[in-house]
UniProtKB/TrEMBL annotation, chain A:
The chain crosses the membrane at residues 240-259. The lineage of its organism: Eukaryota, Metazoa, Chordata, Craniata, Vertebrata. SUPFAM superfamilies: Fibronectin type III. Residues 1-25 form the signal peptide. CDD domains: FN3. InterPro entries: FN3_dom, FN3_sf, Growth/epo_recpt_lig-bind, Ig-like_fold, Long_hematopoietin_rcpt_CS. It is a single-pass type I membrane protein. Its main location: membrane. This is Prolactin receptor. Residues 345-409 are annotated as: Disordered. It comes from Dissostichus eleginoides (Patagonian toothfish).
UniProtKB/TrEMBL annotation, chain B:
It is found in: Secreted. Keywords: Disulfide bond, Hormone, Secreted, Signal. This is Prolactin. GO terms for molecular function: hormone activity. Belongs to the somatotropin/prolactin family. It comes from the Eukaryota. Residues 1-28 form the signal peptide. PROSITE patterns: SOMATOTROPIN_1, SOMATOTROPIN_2.
């Protein structure tokens, strides 16, 4: 039987005895006591221990409580040796009754006259119920460490706990707070019995408490509070803060100054400027100033558009270049033969979109034709030569220094030819911007009575002075150009067409007579009537265009290059807008009105080169 | 760039190796066992501290395991069963109080410690084996059982070393019989522990490890008292 069974039997016997003796008790509503509750057992030093219980209701009767225990593996039931030392409802086990590492089975019994009640048994081992007393002799002192104060806290273990012999090992914990605050600052101290607290507030009052715990047990209560006041070192702190503030302000100033100095470069670093458009020669400052003229003048590249008439020459319809001088005439004739070569050479010199179909420059003509001059002299063009010579002679006789140039070559200087007519006429002086040199030529011719009948037939007006000779020249040019064109497209044909002014009727129509009529072969002028190889000027339309008309056929003449005579008293547009059924390829269209501004050239030639949109023939 | 990084790291590695070797050279000499030369001699104080720390750890592990068992495998409230528990080491006479422990001679105390440690060698080994086979326990408990087993073994060796040291120093006489023949200490009915259930075994070992730790502390504070005592 175990310890518990023994105890129970004993209790029952006792109870029976009590009941027997209290059988005659007063008749009341008494009840047996309620079961007591064992609350806890504690040992302060692992040498003694105390158990407390909580009594239940006593049932109205005086109730006694008894604690019984038995040790491990022993049948002996012992009763509590001491009910008083530890207070009420407690049992104190002294050293003699306490065995460590022994399992105790403890029960509390409440007994009254009517019955008894057993508490639940509790198994305890003293080793695991150790709860020491709080540490003692807590001292706190203010010490100084290089001018900064700290608290030195020291204490002693509870006097009952024997840590000196190693029987109990205690670990400590302390807490600190300022008097005016509520939160404690915990510090774990381990097995040591002193501790340092730093980071104190100057002039603050601190509260310190400490507690302990065995390695396997419960924490003790907090020791009594210890107060300490930290002396003022406020002035030292303040001076330090003042120093710190001044230093940081200084650094801040330096930084801002640096930033300010480098703000520009920083700005470039962080926000790189958006690259603006760069136009060569474009000055933004000028734009800001608002002087647009200067800006655009700056934009203007010198020598652009090219002053040379090469482009114009390229664009324009070809004009025949009639050299007044014999040499020129010859060259012209030669040029007919050399059309292909000249043209080709010219074309090579010109750009791809050149509309020219013929040799452009007299220089070229001279060069090229001169080269082939000797070759071609013996060609069977003597008739034409003669004819041209004859005509030319007339021109020469009449001081025909004017010349009809091919259109592209209008702009090329003719050193030996351009000078004479220019000299004569102020308006025709500058040779560069020329449309037709025949104007001068013709005017000259007109002014002189020595002009042959072909010239006398000219009916000149001031305007028409330019017009008609121009028409003549045009016509000649036209035909020539036609010839040229046709020759481009085809094999070189010796056909050249010259026209000579037959007469000018009273209607201001220049009647031209071709010297050699080869229109039959020529695409350009398919409808030249055999009988009358001339074309007459139909009139000048409102746009100052010279309208040519082919007589006989009534069909229109190949359109002529538009011209503009600027300086001669008006802007005359000679247009070849006569309705033509001719193939445009054969003819040169110069039907665009020219602009006044670019019309007049220095030498008085009409600048027909300003025409644009010339289709290439 | 990678070349410089490599060189820098190499320099650091060399530095670290040098420093660590220097550190170990100071305190890394082997503990002298039997009259060796060039070994680092540990003081008795140091030995005691090591052993005490070891025993404290061992007791901690046993406590953890016991509480796990108590949580998951509640023992029956049968009082008969509980009272019938007898630890197989109960035959070893151990002081049950401070006075008894202080009255005991050093040699006796040392012997008691060694007896306890030897007595638990086999039961813990079998306990670990049974835990490994029973899949009821998680790996954590199994590892703890293994660790407990190892620690008992190591602790016994440590305590033997302490005893030898004390004998060398003349602190204790050479009458510690456990050192001579440990098998003598085994209880005659050594098969009792096989009848114990796992929970009871853990309960008994927890108590015995506490005894060992406490006895060692008493021994230390008696022989080499310091500020910790």
């Amino acid at each position: 039987m175990g310890c518990g069974a023994m105890m129970k039997s004993v209790m029952e016997v006792l109870l029976l005895l009590m009941l027997f003796f209290t059988a005659h008790a007063k008749e009341k509503s008494y009840s047996p006591p309620e079961k007591p509750t064992q609350t806890r057992c504690r040992s302060p030093e692992k040498e003694t221990f105390t158990c407390w219980w909580e009594p239940g209701s006593d049932g109205g009767l005086p109730t006694t409580y008894a604690l019984y225990y038995c040790k491990e593996n022993s049948e002996t039931v012992y009763e509590c040796p001491d009910y008083h030392t530890a207070g009420e409802n407690s049992c104190f086990f002294n050293k003699n009754d306490t065995s460590i590492w022994v399992n105790y089975n403890i029960s509390v019994v409440a007994t009254n006259a009517l019955g008894r009640a057993f508490s639940d048994p509790v198994d305890i081992d003293v080793v695991y119920i150790v709860e020491p007393n709080p540490p003692e002799k807590l001292t706190v002192a203010v010490m100084e460490d290089k001018g900064w104060p700290f608290l030195l806290v020291s204490w002693e273990p509870p006097h009952k706990a024997d840590t000196r012999s190693g029987w109990i090992t205690l670990i400590y914990e302390l807490r600190v707070r300022l008097e005016e605050e509520e939160d404690w600052e915990m510090h774990h101290a381990g097995q040591q019995k002193m501790f340092n607290i730093f980071s104190l507030r100057s002039g603050g009052k601190y509260l310190v408490e400490v507690r302990c715990k065995p390695d396997h047990g419960f924490w003790s209560e907090w020791s009594s509070t210890s107060y300490v006041k930290v002396p003022d070192y406020f002035h030292r702190e303040k001076s330090m803060w003042i120093l710190v503030a001044v230093f940081s302000a200084f650094i801040f100033l330096i930084l801002t100054w640096l930033l300010h100095m480098n703000s520009h470069s920083l700005k470039h670093c962080i926000l790189p400027p958006v690259p603006g458009p760069k136009i060569k020669g474009f000055d933004k400052q000028l734009l800001k100033n608002g002087n647009s003229d200067e800006i655009f003048s700056a934009l203007v590249v010198p020598n652009f558009p090219p002053a040379s008439t090469s482009k114009y020459e390229e664009m324009l319809v070809e004009y025949l270049e009639v050299y007044v001088l014999e040499e020129q005439e010859l060259m012209l004739e030669e040029s007919k033969d050399l059309l292909d070569g000249c043209l080709k050479s010219e074309n090579s010199r010109s750009d791809s979109d050149s509309g020219r179909g013929s040799c452009d420059s007299h220089t070229l003509l001279m060069d090229k034709c001169g080269e082939t001059k000797e070759e071609e002299r013996q060609t069977n063009r003597e008739s034409s030569l003669i004819e041209t010579q004859g005509w030319k002679e007339e021109a020469i006789n009449h001081d025909t220094s004017g010349r009809v140039k091919t259109w592209p070559s209008v702009y090329s200087p003719l050193p030996q030819y351009g000078s004479n007519p220019l000299d004569k006429q102020s308006s025709l002086e500058t040779a560069k911007q020329h449309s037709l040199s025949t104007s001068s030529f013709l005017t000259q011719a007109g002014t002189k009575d020595a002009l042959g009948p072909s010239y006398t037939d000219f009916c000149f007006s001031n305007k028409q002075n330019h017009l008609h000779p121009q028409t003549l020249a045009h016509r000649e040019l036209q035909t020539r150009s036609d010839v040229n064109i046709s020759n481009i497209g085809r094999k070189r044909s010796p056909a050249t067409e010259y026209v000579e002014v037959q007469r000018v009727n009273k209607e201001d129509m220049v009647l031209l007579q071709p010297v050699v009529s080869r229109c039959g072969h020529i695409e350009g002028c398919p409808n030249l009537p055999k009988g009358e190889d001339y074309s007459k000027v139909k009139g000048v339309d409102c746009d100052n265009r010279l309208l040519l008309q082919r007589e006989g056929t009534g069909e229109d003449v190949c359109p002529l290059v538009d011209q503009e005579t600027n300086g001669e008293g008006g802007n005359c547009y000679t247009s070849s807008t006569v309705s033509t059924t001719q193939k445009p390829t054969a003819c040169m269209y110069t039907s665009m009105p020219l602009q006044e501004e670019t019309a007049l050239t220095l030498n008085g030639y009409v600048d027909t080169a300003t025409m644009s949109n010339l289709p290439s023939c | 760039m990678p070349g410089t990084i490599r060189s820098v790291s190499l320099v650091w590695v060399v530095l670290l190796v040098c420093l660590s070797s220097r550190r170990t050279s100071v305190g890394a000499a082997p503990i002298c066992t039997n009259g060796q030369v060039g070994c680092h001699v540990l003081s008795l104080d140091n030995l005691f501290d090591r052993v005490i720390q070891h025993s404290a750890r061992m007791h901690g592990i046993s406590s953890d395991l016991h509480s796990e068992f108590e949580q998951y495998f509640l023992p029956s409230k049968n009082q008969i069963g509980r009272l019938g528990r007898i630890c197989h080491t109960s035959t070893i006479i151990t002081p049950n109080g401070k006075e008894n422990a202080q009255r005991m001679a050093r040699e006796q105390l040392t012997e008691v410690i060694l007896k306890l440690l030897i007595a638990w060698r086999d039961p813990l080994w079998h306990f670990h084996q049974s835990m490994a086979h029973h899949h009821d326990f998680n790996n954590f408990s199994s590892n703890k059982a293994l660790e407990m087993n190892d620690m008992v073994h190591e602790l016994r060796q440590g305590v033997e070393k302490v005893a030898e040291k004390m004998q060398v120093l003349g602190i204790i006489s050479n009458s510690v019989t456990s050192l001579a023949s440990p098998e003598v200490l085994l209880p005659s009915d050594s098969a009792d522990w096989r009848l114990m259930k796992d929970y009871d075994l853990l309960y008994c070992f927890r108590r015995d490890s506490n005894k060992v730790q406490n006895y060692l502390k008493i021994l230390k504070c008696r022989i080499v008292p310091d500020h910790g005592c």
